Amino acid sequence: MSKRILVTGGLGYIGSHTVVALQEKGFEVVIIDNLSNSSLEVLGGITRITKISPQFEKIDLRERHDVSNFFDKYQDIDGVIHFAASKAVGESVENPLLYYENNLNTLIYLLQQLKEKETPKIIFSSSCTVYGQADELPITENAPVKKAESPYGNTKQIGEEIIADTCKVTSHLKAISLRYFNPIGAHPSAHIGELPIGTPQNLVPFITQTAAGIREKLSVFGQDYPTPDGTCIRDYIHVMDLARAHVVALERIIHGEQSENYEVFNLGTGKGNSVLEAIQAFEKVSGQKLPYDFAPRREGDITAAYADTTKANEVLKWKAEYGIEEAMQSAWKWQQELQKKQKEEI
């Protein structure tokens, strides 16, 4: 009998690609999403790719009784992958209380339900922001967790602490935190991809929207960082590689392969690219010249971050397969598909 997995925020960017990866590996998926930063159309995209329509519950996880009612209804959940969270650094600086409520209360309510189960398992969507500006690059899992540069980063640090503390006193709870670097790209079918509501907060949707003529030009925040070309350096990981890592981590818990009941892994490519290099990679695969200018640095942004992926490579037997050009190509294909759909609807 297939395992039933709850994916919170499963209609979001990383969540939807992970649902596809889970279904393709034979898992039965239930999605919770409040549609605050996603669209019900994504459910159709998942179904077109996998030929399976996952169960969907529109629930706001900030409502404790709704979380409790969900677990009363679905008593056979074998594991949870928790994506549901607000994730824009700039917005978190402007509206910290929203981020603390949305990113911490939801996790607490889930864990309260999970610890009552016989064999609770959770994969937590964390972030490389927990490292702040690391002293050494590439960043290993043993790098010190520094004072967060933003409320968003702080919620990921606190979220990990909440899980670790709960695992200490709940020996049957099994958990893994996955610290992502910078997810980009889309499913090769272009049925699902990154679909920001309103102004994009991430670089690649801004790039593709600028190339598509939706945005007049791209703003590159900061050109005076101590890097070879003056722009920030990030580790851009294809979302399909990231999705696959969640399945591998979940299987590790399910098969009882953990060395301890709480583990942490970095997920990246192990290579850093500057913002200008990312733009150049897009221009190369798309044949489009991007108009951009430089803007002041954004509060909360760090100079450089890229992963040491040795632990994930060796312990999870997982490695990123795609490079930045393949990711950019899939993101551009997704943007063109969106444009095509919008024209058909007019």
Could you please describe the fold and organization of this structure?
- Helix content is 41%, strand content 17%.
- With 346 residues, the protein is α/β, with parallel strands linked by helices.
- The strands form four sheets. A seven-stranded parallel sheet has the order 3-2-1-4-5-6-11, with helices on both faces. Strands 12-9-14 form a three-stranded mixed sheet.
- The termini are far apart.
- The radius of gyration is 19 Å and the shape is globular.
- The chain has eleven helices and 14 strands.
- It has two domains: 213 residues, 3-Layer(aba) Sandwich (Rossmann fold), CATH 3.40.50; 108 residues, UDP-galactose 4-epimerase, domain 1, CATH 3.90.25.
SSE inventory with pairings:
Layout: E1 4-8, H1 13-24, E2 28-33, H2 41-50, E3 55-58, H3 64-73, E4 79-82, H4 89-94, H5 96-114, E5 121-127, H6 151-169, E6 174-180, E7 182-184, H7 203-211, E8 218-221, E9 233-234, E10 236-238, H8 239-254, E11 262-267, E12 273-274, H9 275-286, E13 292-295, E14 304-305, H10 310-316, H11 324-345
Parallel strand pairs: 1-2, 1-4, 2-3, 4-5, 5-6, 6-11, 7-10, 8-13, 9-14
Antiparallel strand pairs: 9-12
Pathway: Carbohydrate metabolism; galactose metabolism
Subunit structure: Homodimer.
Catalytic activity: UDP-alpha-D-glucose = UDP-alpha-D-galactose
